[in-house]
Design goal:
402 residues; alpha/beta; pyruvate-formate lyase- activating enzyme; four-stranded parallel β-sheet; globular; binds iron/sulfur cluster
């Protein structure tokens, strides 16, 4: 029987999504497909042009232009080869702006979490009756414990997703909107089972990393205060599974400053091998923190940085410059605040320029111009290796409506 092709358009930023999709499919279903992983900047693998082909994309706002021109080129390639091709895309950007995705030439835009939908869609595509247009999946329903979040075929064992969603509502952030303000956790049992499988697949592996918008909030019932017993259970479980390198609260996870407490530190520090914690502060201006709905103030943030240093962690802190209507003197204050944190607590700054993300309360806001003085000071911090991030590239997206 001729197999149908499925091409995953893999980039560094979407490996996790494709592993999760494949991991959600049964081996029986996948046995009907020739799976092609197309990674990097080279041309599409030639075998994809040889048979009926499904092309799967997931991308973010910053990649729209490059994906659009790639789709155009592929459509003409498939048409010249007289091969039937179906283009499907999902992910956060698609969920926020599905109409723009079908306008780019995709046959189907999938809004929402796809673990349940994707296997059903594949079965329909194999039967040659796939849905077209836009599919909207009810948000916040997927039970993480039913899906491993990876598949060995992608040759990538991602950080284990221990939570999904967020109970906070920061005005610039897409996470609470994507998941309708829900917050779900993967159980300790499920996390340990994935760790066990990783060690089976890669026997020399020692380290397990995690994915969460607030690692220190693992198991928190209301998402507002730490759950010490859940953190303890997770740490003891990982140790009993033989995980000798537990990297928790570091990239690609983050933590909130109000969850960096003495009790949390005492609970997790003895288990962790990472020396960096990624934390969001965003700005040092209390009025702006309140306006963006962060739910903590500057003092709490400074206390968290102090606490991390006391427990021998280097804080890698997210900040945003160019917030809507931000004045030059506020930018000067922000730079002074960041420089103080760098010099006093050895903080490393992860710098962002404000970008109006679709479907967020601030989607129609523009970023403020970053003053020449602020740019000079940001570059000085970067030159001394105390600042990283894509803030310069993001300037273009923050001003896109001008
Ligand atoms: S920035 Fe963090 S805390 Fe705020 S809404 Fe987004 S995920 Fe939640």
């Amino acid at each position: 029987m001729n197999k149908n092709n499925i091409v995953f358009r893999v980039q560094n930023y979407n490996k996790v999504s494709f592993g999760a999709l494949l991991g959600a499919c049964s081996e029986e279903l996948l046995s009907h497909l020739k799976i092609i992983i197309w990674e990097g900047t080279g041309p599409i693998p030639p075998e994809a042009l040889n048979g009926r082909t499904l092309l799967v994309y997931s991308f973010m706002m910053a990649h729209v232009k490059s994906v659009e021109s790639e789709i155009l080129q592929l459509k003409s390639q498939f048409s010249e080869s007289a091969v039937e091709a179906f283009f499907i895309s999902g992910g956060a950007h698609v969920t926020a702006t599905p109409e723009s995705i079908t306008a780019m030439g995709f046959d189907l835009a999938v809004c929402g979490e796809s673990e349940e939908f994707f296997p059903e869609f594949l079965a329909k595509w194999l039967e040659k009756c796939p849905p077209r247009g836009i599919v909207k999946i009810e948000p916040g329903k997927v039970d993480l414990n039913l899906y491993p979040g990876f598949h060995r075929l992608t040759n990538y064992l991602p950080p284990v997703e221990i939570s999904r969603g967020c109970k906070w509502g920061c005005s610039y952030c897409a996470v609470p909107r994507l998941y309708h303000g829900t917050l779900r956790y993967r159980s300790v049992e499920s996390i340990l089972s994935i760790a066990r499988q990783y060690f089976q697949i890669q026997p020399s592996r020692r380290r397990i990393k995690f994915l969460s918008s607030n690692s220190f909030g693992y198991g928190s019932e209301d998402g507002r205060k730490p759950n010490i017993s859940a953190l303890k259970e997770l740490m003891l479980g990982l140790r009993s599974e033989g995980v000798t390198e537990i990297s928790f609260g570091s990239f690609p996870s983050e933590v909130r400053p109000d969850f960096v407490t003495e009790e949390v530190m005492e609970t997790i520090r003895p288990f962790l091998t990472n020396d960096t914690i990624v934390m969001g502060i965003q700005t040092g201006n209390d009025k702006r923190l309140a306006a963006m709905g962060r739910g903590h103030d500057r003092e709490t943030a400074v206390r968290a940085v102090e606490m991390l240093k006391k427990y021998r962690f280097r804080a890698h802190v997210d900040f945003i410059i160019g917030l809507p209507h931000e004045k030059q003197d506020e930018q000067d204050d922000l730079l002074t605040f960041m420089e103080e944190l760098v010099h006093k607590y050895n903080v490393k700054v992860h710098m962002h320029t404000f970008m109006p993300l679709p479907a967020t309360p601030w989607e129609n806001q523009l970023s403020s111009v970053i003053s020449a003085n602020a740019r000079r000071r940001l570059k000085a911090l970067a030159a001394s290796n105390n600042l990283d991030g894509w803030w310069e590239n993001q300037i273009h997206y923050g001003r896109k409506k001008t």
